[in-house]
Each structure stands twice: as structure tokens, then as C-alpha cells.
Amino acid sequence: MAEPGEGLPEEVLALIFRHLSLRDRAAAARVCRAWAAAATCSAVWHDTKISCECELEGMLPPYLSACLDHIHNLRLEFEPSRKPSRRAAIELLMVLAGRAPGLRGLRLECRGEKPLFDAGRDVLEAVHAVCGAASQLRHLDLRRLSFTLDDALVLQAARSCPE
User: Fold this and answer.
1) Mapping DSSP to helix (H, G, I), strand (E, B) and coil, where does residue 51 land?
2) pTM, whole model, 2 decimals?
3) Do residues 141 and 91 both lie within one domain?
4) Do 33 and 54 share a domain, yes or no?
5) Which of 11, 13, 95, 137 has the fewest beta carbons closer than 10 A?
């Protein structure tokens, strides 16, 4: 019996996989060797959207961490009032700060309600770490971040992110 992706070139599979969610990419990578190779291809990860509401919980270390180096533009959604979602977002940002020098764009979006009297210091420190480490970061979109930015972060973003 032929492998499921045997007839399709890796480039075509990569074009398809780039539109899948993280959970679906992980499932596709388990189908066969050809699909696993295509799912970890750098083209799949250039523009990535990650929702920490359900996708990342328990998924970061093995599968996603192998592909972080390929991410150029990241849209990260999380819910600050849910501890697992917030923890996953912070963990991802901190890992990204250490492993993704090719990151060019970062867009953070808070979903749901922000807890009362929460300054978001932990989230802002993670953003600060990414801004300091990602030398190619050119676009930083924090408009949907529900925390007040501190002066140091604003100055760092102004210096390193022209857009």
C-alpha cells in the first residue's frame, strides 16, 4: 500500500500544512514520514498563528520547540485570566527569545477579560526578552495587549522595531 503523501511533493504538502492549526500540524506529522518531513519544513512555519487557549497546553516542548527557529512572523493569542493559557504564552515567548533570532514580526492578542489589578508584569517581561533577543524584529503589534506598557519596553521597541 502506498504512503498517504507519496504522490504529493513536499512543497505542495508544506503549502497545505501552513494553513493548519498547531494541533492539526501535529496530527499530520504523525501520518507518515513524508508528511512529518513536510510538517517541519521551514516554509510551513514562516507565518504562524498560535492560540494558547487550547492548542499549546502541554504541546510546546516536543513538537513546537523543534520548529521555533523557522518562525518569521508570529501571531500569539492568549487569555490572561486563564493561568494555563497565560503560562503557555509566557513560556513560548521566553523560549522564542532564546531560539528565534530570525523573528521579524510579533503580534500579541489578549482574549477574554483581564484580571482586575493585574499589571501583566510577567507578560511584559517576556515581551521585553523577545524584543531584546530578536535582532531582525521589525514589526511589533501590541495593540490588543491589555496591559500598560512600561517606558523601557516602549523605548526598546522604538529602537529595534521600525514598524
Assistant:
1) strand
2) 0.81
3) yes
4) no
5) 11
